[in-house]
Specification:
By secondary structure, the protein is an alpha/beta fold. It has one domain: TIM Barrel (Alpha-Beta Barrel), CATH 3.20.20. About 30% of the residues lie in helices and about 15% in strands. The chain is built from 11 helices and 14 strands. It has helices spanning about 40-45, 75-90, 150-165, 180-185, 200-205, 205-220, 245-255, 270-280, 300-305, 315-320, 325-330; strands at about 10, 15, 20, 50-60, 95-100, 120, 130-135, 135-140, 145, 170-175, 225-230, 260-265, 285-290, 310-315. Strands 3-4-5-10-11-12-13-14 form an 8-stranded parallel barrel. The longest helix is centred in the middle third of the chain and has 20 residues, at about 150-165. The chain starts with 7 loop residues before the first strand and ends in a 29-residue tail after the last helix. The mean pLDDT is about 95.
Length: about 350
């Protein structure tokens, strides 16, 4: 019987176990030009006992940034800074993928050097709600609809960022197609009201996600490319009406590529049937961030044993427990995450969580 602590071959990359650190925005890219700092290096190195680390979302372009103090991978300065992170993780025996995240309509001019810019999206549909900025909460604005040429250029930004990730020493990249950001915005009819090749029926709405994935796979190799999806997720004012059909169509199109993995995050309880359908559709390594995850929950481990997933990804539990695989093996004890320090701030709640060794 396969268990979570067994090694796994991820398309040629050996992982020491089947426990992944899920991507989590921390808003601490305080270095020049939105670069990782010494504390970022320490944060990821502390968690190198994960079979796989997936970084926080990293924007592929200036306009892709959606939150304050999030890092990029679109400048030489950023590539050099991330190299320090990957070197530290590898020195501690870990493997690390960069998550490439374009926020799309989730953003604000207050975040960017040129405050005349507007966020971009498949269609000019404003999300409800507000965004935190250094100037305080700001109402979301109506984004600018991407032209056809700009859609193609944005696909190129993803591919360029993936190439930069490999130059920075990452073992691969994960494309963020979840949680209401740009790729997800193209997938969903409520945010994608286009009438060209990128919108309308399911086969058009999945085109952007498919083309981004194909472009990145062509740039760095399919075996080093993963994709994260969140079927049914309403985060960032999203609303899906044809969830299963959309995601099955997308995965069917991507299946021949031989991707490194497919990563499903179950943000919505009650959609395990969709997860299982995608698991059946995808023949490669299947990563699951399960809806059963809690701050002190190791009850998800049987999902490896029964074949629901090949790898389990944990978020807040890994944030607060740098040595999470060891703690899962003994069913705890677990540190409790300090939610007040999730975003921004200093090293408190970032690199000061104790390990079992003290």
């Amino acid at each position: 019987m396969t268990i979570a602590f067994d090694p796994i071959d991820l398309s040629g990359t050996r992982l020491a176990n089947r426990i992944a650190m899920a991507p989590m925005t921390r808003s601490r890219a305080f270095g020049p030009g939105l670069t990782p700092t010494d504390s970022t290096v320490e944060y990821y190195a502390q968690r190198a006992s994960a079979g796989l680390i997936v970084t926080e979302g990293i924007q592929p372009s200036v306009i892709g940034q959606g939150y304050p103090d999030t890092p990029g991978l679109h400048s030489a300065e950023q590539v050099a800074a991330w190299r320090r992170v990957t070197d530290a993780v590898h020195a501690n025996g870990g493997r690390i993928f960069a998550q490439i995240m374009h926020a799309g309509r989730i953003g604000h001019p207050a975040l960017w050097p040129d405050q005349e810019l507007l966020s971009v999206a498949p269609s000019a549909v404003a999300p409800q709600g507000q965004l935190y900025t250094h100037e305080g909460p700001k109402d979301f604005l109506t984004p600018r609809e991407l032209t056809g040429a700009e859609v193609r250029a944005t696909i190129g930004d993803f591919a360029s960022a993936a190439r930069n990730a490999i130059e920075a020493g990452f073992d691969g990249v994960e494309l963020h197609g979840a949680n209401g950001y740009l790729i997800h915005q193209f997938l969903t009819a409520g945010t994608n009201r286009r009438t060209d090749e990128w919108g309308g029926p399911v086969e058009n709405r999945i085109r952007f996600a498919a083309e981004v994935t194909k472009a990145v796979a062509a740039e760095i190799g399919a075996s080093r490319t993963g994709l994260r999806l969140s079927p049914g997720n309403a985060h960032n004012d999203m609303a899906e009406t044809d969830t299963e059909a959309t995601y099955l169509a997308l995965v069917e199109q991507l299946e021949p590529l031989g991707l490194g993995y497919l990563h499903i995050t179950e943000n919505v309880p009650g959609l395990r049937d969709v997860t299982l359908a995608l698991r059946k559709q995808f023949s490669g390594t299947f990563v699951l961030n399960p809806s059963t995850e809690g701050f002190t929950d190791h009850g998800a481990l049987p999902l490896i044993e029964d074949g629901t997933a090949d790898i389990l990804a944990f978020g807040a539990l890994f944030l607060a427990n740098p040595d999470l695989p060891a703690r899962l093996k003994t069913a705890g004890p677990y540190n409790t995450p300090d939610t007040a320090t999730f975003f921004g701030g200093d090293d408190k709640g970032y690199i000061d969580y104790p390990t079992l060794a003290g």
